[in-house]
């Protein structure tokens, strides 16, 4: 029979440490929870005590006879256990009655999600660069800010004459760079390098859309004086008849499908991708001749409603494409409305080492999306339609859907760019239409930005177990109905003023020229950004009345009512949270782990002291028998004593000579010093956070906190009782074995009779 001793069980066996862990858990944790197994901490001896797995071995022996019949069940259980452990969340596990399990599960989810969020951030920011801004700024300054000899810039174009002045001046000068600043040739052939760095891809294209004559009606009184009428732009009224020279693409209509165009949302309206187009040349001289011919033959006339100038450039230094579109709209009122769109995008993805690192992040991102898809399916399967009652679950689905769309587009974009670049290199004299790819790349970036925003907001889902973190969500959820009712009153007044402003100032003030602009202008007035002088000039009587009454009712009355609703609800929520009973928090788990670590280090230190005493008890060489007897008197087990002795008995003669004892003492002393240093460090912090002489407060007592001395004393007493019970159990096992042998002998003696 194995003899068990108090000190043996409390100092050398892993079982004692496990029991101590369980008791330490009970000091701070919900006492009704015993679902998590106690951690096993190895001793200074490598082998694990056999008693740790004794129960497991017995279970396995009992199950072996029927293992063949139950193997499918075991496999199913193992699969379910794996899924539960790998995809376990607060929604897939029952944590309603177990606060500790809820916090641990939520913390695990939070850690996994933080890794996912880090990957998304690296992936998103890896696709952008600060150089994009400077590339865009350089192209904007060149094609928008440069002036012609007559002082016409793109932004100051007001007539068709100004357009031709700009096209034959700053546009041509900016597109074709073939010489250095000292007139020395760039030696690049017919290829243009804008700013000496940005290669012009293909040739630029000019396209216009016209409206049919007599597309509107002229009043009877003016029919004799006005011979033609060209309506505002409408796709159904586009002019599709050839005109002018009728000998090229500039004079013949082409549908959107023919030129593979796309619609464009301008400042005045949305235009189709059809029209009359003219591709320029690769040289400045030929392009100048083409523009002169178009101007002389009146390519632009009364029916012209918009002109597009499209071209693309590529900078190999930063691996960026710049897709430029200059737009001049000619409204039916006369004049011109210029606008531009410059998209700097990264279409070729994988060149540098950083790009391949981003590729690795993309693969990790795909794995995470697959992981979260399975997780949401499991939660949906468990909770059915109740799953959609949580706003966080809806946000999870939104993030996953946006991510899947991003993955699909990423593959599509890579294939499309390769095909387009291949055709461009084969035919460099053609127009390189990167507008389609640049548009969808921009939408892709916008989608990633929105997805990253929701990903950051989703962190609130995992930190909601803290009372402080729940104040925001609880406040907004509780006052939602009041805010909704107030919003109805607010927007009635707000839209009434928006209609009033549009009708009063819409013809003279740009910020009130449309109803949508009126809405945003009134939001800006609330924030203090307004142009009172423009309102006053538009209407000297009703302008001041509109402004004063709007500021009074909306800013001073309605806005403060809105803030009062939120403030009152927040005060109620804060008062309720302060009166609630404190539950287990993260800090409690940290204190628990801290305490267990501190006590385990002290136990290890005492183990080393026992071995050192055994070494000091001998003189000269120490035999294994004496070493074993000394440690057995201290309560250690034979197996652990043999492991410790054989670790330093190099020659295997069952005797520790002077050299072996010296090595053993040195190693033990080093371990003891390291443990002392760690204990001192922990003890210093422990003394600050958990003073030994401090009496437990009423709140701590109600939550199960005890002083350190009391806890250690109770721990030793419980362990003594446990070891006594273990000794009695082992004796009973021995008696049962003897009784079993006696019964077998009796049956053997009876059988011959």
Automatic annotation (TrEMBL):
Residues 636-671 form the EF-hand domain. InterPro entries: EF-hand-dom_pair, EF_hand_dom, PKD1_2_channel, PKD_2, Polycystin, Polycystin_dom, Volt_channel_dom_sf. GO terms for cellular component: ciliary membrane; cytoplasmic vesicle. It is found in: Cell projection, Cilium membrane; Cytoplasmic vesicle. Disulfide bonds join 216-229. Pfam families: Fer4_24, PKD_channel, Polycystin_dom. Residues 658-685 form a coiled coil. Ca(2+) binds at residues 649, 651, 660. Its main location: membrane. It comes from the Eukaryota. It is a multi-pass membrane protein. The chain crosses the membrane at residues 110-127, 354-374, 394-415, 483-505, 545-566. One of its GO terms (biological process) is detection of mechanical stimulus. Keywords: Calcium, Calcium channel, Calcium transport, Cell membrane, Cell projection, Coiled coil, Cytoplasmic vesicle, Disulfide bond, Glycoprotein, Ion channel, Ion transport, Membrane, Metal-binding, Transmembrane, Transmembrane helix, Transport. GO terms for molecular function: calcium channel activity; calcium ion binding; calcium-activated potassium channel activity; muscle alpha-actinin binding; sodium channel activity. Belongs to the polycystin family. This is Polycystin 2 like 1, transient receptor potential cation channel. It comes from Poecilia formosa (Amazon molly).
């Amino acid at each position: 029979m194995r003899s068990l001793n108090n000190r043996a069980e409390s100092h050398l066996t892993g079982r004692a440490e496990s029991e101590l862990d369980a008791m330490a858990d009970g000091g701070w944790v919900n006492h009704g929870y015993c679902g998590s197994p106690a951690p096993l901490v190895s001793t200074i001896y490598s082998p694990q005590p056999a008693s740790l797995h004794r129960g497991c071995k017995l279970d396995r022996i009992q199950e072996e006879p029927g293992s063949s019949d139950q193997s499918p069940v075991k496999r199913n259980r193992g699969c379910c256990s794996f899924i539960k452990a790998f995809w376990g969340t607060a929604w897939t596990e029952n944590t309603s009655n177990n606060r500790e399990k809820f916090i641990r599960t939520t913390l695990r989810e939070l850690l996994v999600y933080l890794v996912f969020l880090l990957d998304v951030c690296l992936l998103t920011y890896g696709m952008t660069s600060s150089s994009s801004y400077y590339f865009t700024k350089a192209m904007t300054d060149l094609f928008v800010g440069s002036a012609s000899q007559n002082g016409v810039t793109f932004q100051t174009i007001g007539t068709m004459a100004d357009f031709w002045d700009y096209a034959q001046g700053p546009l041509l000068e900016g597109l074709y760079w073939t010489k250095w600043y000292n007139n020395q040739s760039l030696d690049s052939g017919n290829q243009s390098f804008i700013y000496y760095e940005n290669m012009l891809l293909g040739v630029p294209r000019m396209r216009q859309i016209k409206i049919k004559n007599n597309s509107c009606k002229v009043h009877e009184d003016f029919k004799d004086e006005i011979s033609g009428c060209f309506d505002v732009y409408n796709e159904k009224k586009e002019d599709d008849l050839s005109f002018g020279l009728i000998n090229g693409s500039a004079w013949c209509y082409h549908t959107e499908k023919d030129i593979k165009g796309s619609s464009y949302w301008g400042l005045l309206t949305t235009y189709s991708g059809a029209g009359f187009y003219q591709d320029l040349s690769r040289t400045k001289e030929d392009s100048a001749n083409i523009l002169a011919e178009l101007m002389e033959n009146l390519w632009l006339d009364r029916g012209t409603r918009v002109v597009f100038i499209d071209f693309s450039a590529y900078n190999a230094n930063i691996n960026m494409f710049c897709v430029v579109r200059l737009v001049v709209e000619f409204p039916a009122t006369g004049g011109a409305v210029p606008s531009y769109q410059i998209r700097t995008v990264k279409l070729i993805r994988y060149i540098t080492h950083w790009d391949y690192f981003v590729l690795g992040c993309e693969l990790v991102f795909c794995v995470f999306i697959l992981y979260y898809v399975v997780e949401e399916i499991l939660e949906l399967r468990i909770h059915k339609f109740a799953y959609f009652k949580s706003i966080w679950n809806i946000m999870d689905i939104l993030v996953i859907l946006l991510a899947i769309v991003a993955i699909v587009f990423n593959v599509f974009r890579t294939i499309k760019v390769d095909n387009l670049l291949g055709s461009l290199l084969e035919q460099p004299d053609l127009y390189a239409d990167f507008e389609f790819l640049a548009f969808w790349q921009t939408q892709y970036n916008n989608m990633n930005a929105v997805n990253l925003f929701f990903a950051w907001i989703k962190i609130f889902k995992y930190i909601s177990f803290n009372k402080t973190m729940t104040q925001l969500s609880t406040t907004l959820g509780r006052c939602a109905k009041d805010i909704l009712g107030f919003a109805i009153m607010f927007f009635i007044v707000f839209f009434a003023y928006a209609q009033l402003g549009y009708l009063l100032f819409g013809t003279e003030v740009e910020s009130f020229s449309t109803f949508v602009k009126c809405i945003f202008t009134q939001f800006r007035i609330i924030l203090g950004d307004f142009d009172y002088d423009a309102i006053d000039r538009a209407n000297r009587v009703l302008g001041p009345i509109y402004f004063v009454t709007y500021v009074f009712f909306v800013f001073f009355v309605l806005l403060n009512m809105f803030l009062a609703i939120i403030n009152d609800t927040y005060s109620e929520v804060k008062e309720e949270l302060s009166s609630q009973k404190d539950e287990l928090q993260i800090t409690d788990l940290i204190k628990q782990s801290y305490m267990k670590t501190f006590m385990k280090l002290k136990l290890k230190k005492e183990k080393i002291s026992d071995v050192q005493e055994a070494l000091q008890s001998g003189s000269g060489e120490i035999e294994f028998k004496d070493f074993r007897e000394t440690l057995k008197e201290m309560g250690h087990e034979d197996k652990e004593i043999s492991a410790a002795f054989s670790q330093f008995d190099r020659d295997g003669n069952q005797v520790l000579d002077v050299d072996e004892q010296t090595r053993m003492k040195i190693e033990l002393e080093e371990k003891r010093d390291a443990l002392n240093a760690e204990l001192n460090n922990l003890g210093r912090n422990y003394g600050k956070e958990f003073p030994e002489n401090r009496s437990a407060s009423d709140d701590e007592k109600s939550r199960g906190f005890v002083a350190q001395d009391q806890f250690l004393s109770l721990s030793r007493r419980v362990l003594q009782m446990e070891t006594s019970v273990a000794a009695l159990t082992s004796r009973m096992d021995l008696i049962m074995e003897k009784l079993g042998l006696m019964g077998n002998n009796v049956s053997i003696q009876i059988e011959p009779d």
